[in-house]
Specification:
Layout: E1 18-31, E2 36-51, E3 56-60, H1 67-74, E4 82-87, E5 90-91, H2 97-103, E6 107-110, H3 124-134, H4 140-153, H5 170-182, E7 188-192, H6 200-217, E8 220-225, H7 228-234, E9 237-242, E10 245-251, H8 252-257, H9 262-269
Parallel strand pairs: 3-8, 3-9, 6-7, 7-8
Antiparallel strand pairs: 1-2, 1-4, 4-5, 9-10
Helix pairs in contact: 3-4, 3-5, 4-5, 5-6
């Protein structure tokens, strides 16, 4: 079972929305005056998994295991060394720049840092509305209306569009980031530790919001986290990542109730118990 993908009841007969096959992302180690390559850091090494339509796959592991690199490589924010990423049957690594730009409307990301991911010099309305402008989907009053609707759907008020990011709390900033990711009506959202920088009470609000949006818009999530408790709460299936490799995959109940790999057991053992014995 280790390193294999146990069958999932949801979407067994349908082709997956996203199919990652033997993905590798290596970073060169350069030394000396001539900066010759002496080796490679294998941040992602032979990772494979799939995500079905309307499903949430949790990618869990400790900091530095390569899980964020997986997400960014899928979106081609970082170049892959080898492997394939098939989105609705199309290999993203073979697409031209213009083809990838059109496809980006269907794939978005929510970043870990709700402060650093928002331009401090731009008003919220422009931050959320910029994807709509770039893709030519809205202008003028229509743009302002859509931005207001997005902010309201994500738990803010339409007038927030006139303010700057520093005028909001961390949880509100993350709601802005979610509204921006939602603007183009994507089918797949990569959630890169979206709650790790937030207080516990705010974390639950953001997780509930993501669940509501998934049901409403039929979204698929790749949910990246180091917190097994959060992964257990939000995900249908779980992939455990360690040192650039996926060491175990399966349904949420299988991984939580019957872990097979020692690293998975260690992650579960690190989850705080509300009433320890």
């Amino acid at each position: 079972m280790e390193g294999t993908d146990r069958p999932s009841k949801a979407g067994e007969s349908a082709a997956p929305l996203l199919d990652v096959q033997e993905l590798c992302t290596y970073f060169p180690i350069r030394t000396g005056i001539l900066q010759r390559v002496r080796g490679f850091v294998k941040a992602v090494d032979g990772v494979s998994f799939h995500i079905n339509a309307g499903e949430t796959l949790g990618l869990v592991g400790e900091s530095g295991c390569g899980k964020t690199t997986v997400g960014r490589t899928i979106l081609r924010l970082i170049p892959a060394t080898s492997g394939q990423v098939l989105y609705r049957g199309r290999n993203l690594f073979e697409l031209s720049g213009s083809e990838m730009r059109r496809l980006r409307r269907e794939m978005q990301i929510i970043f870990q840092d709700p402060v650093g991911s928002l331009n401090p010099r731009m008003r919220v309305g422009r931050i959320v509305g910029e994807p709509l402008e770039v893709h030519g989907l809205a202008r003028g009053e229509q743009l302002r209306q859509r931005v207001g609707d997005l902010l309201e759907r994500c738990g803010l008020w339409p007038g927030a569009a006139e303010r700057f990011p520093h005028e909001f709390s961390g949880g509100q900033r993350q709601r802005i980031g979610i509204a921006r990711a939602l603007a183009l009506q994507p089918k797949l959202i990569i959630c890169d530790e979206p709650t790790s920088a937030l207080d516990v009470s705010i974390q639950s609000q953001i997780l509930n919001l993501l669940a509501e949006l998934q049901d409403e818009f039929q979204l698929s999530y790749l949910f990246i986290s180091h917190d097994m408790a959060v992964i257990h709460h939000v995900c249908d299936r779980i992939a455990v990542m360690f040192n650039g490799h996926i060491v175990e995959q399966g349904s949420r109940d299988e991984i939580i109730n019957d872990p097979q790999h020692a690293y998975t057991k260690a992650l579960l053992g690190a989850v705080p118990q509300p009433f320890p014995q």
